[in-house]
Amino acid sequence: MSATQSLDATFAALADPTRRAILARLASGEASVMELNEPFAMSQPAISKHLKVLERAGLISRGKDGQRRPCRIEARPLADANEWLERYRQLWEANFQRLDALLEVLKQEAPGVPSQGDA
After folding, report:
1. Among positive and negative, which fits the CA dihedral 81, 3, 14, 62?
2. What is the pTM of this model?
3. Which of 7, 54, 98, 111 is a plausible cystine mate for 60, CB 3.0–4.6 Å?
4. Closest residue by Cα to residue 57 from 87, 92, 81
5. Integer Cα distance of 70 and 27 in angstroms
6. How far is CA 34 from CA 11, 60, 95, 103, 116, in A?
7. Which residues contact 41 (CB under 8 A, 6 or more apart)?
8. Residue 65 C-alpha from the chain's centroid
9. Alpha carbon distances (Å) from 1 to 4, 7, 23, 103
């Protein structure tokens, strides 16, 4: 899976509130499908479908512990998504800083309007 496809799968998986809630639960530790199903008013097959989406996106993995197949969260796809978003955060921050600087210049040029340093 390419980096773009992986990012697409991550954001598609995160678009659903149930899947985000499952990830939030798994952030505190491994859980079985039955344990993950408890807080939701849906069938176990429905939860299993959400888990398959998360697994295909690489956001979770399943281990084997006897008869139990605990799910665990995988950090790499979330880190990749965060890295992608961070680039845009930095861009917006730079734009806001330029806007702040422009507003400060305009305040200094306008008589009677207090500047940021004035209290």
Report:
1. negative
2. 0.78
3. 54
4. 81
5. 13
6. 25, 16, 47, 56, 56
7. none
8. 29
9. 8, 10, 21, 46
